[in-house]
Amino acid sequence: MRIHGRLFMMLLLVLFVVGCSTPTAESTEPTMTTEVTDEAPTATEEPAPESTEEEQTMEPTEEATVEPSEDEEATEEADAAVQIDGTIGVEEYTDTATFGDMVVSWRHDGEFLYLAMEGPTEGWIAVGIEPTQAMADADYLFGYVEAGEAKFWDAYGTAPVGAEHPPDEELGGTSDIVEMAGTEENGVTRFEVQIPLDSGDEYDKVLMPGESYSIIVAMGPTDEYNSKHFFVSSGELTLQ
Question: What are residue 8's DSSP bridge partners?
Answer without folding.
Answer: none
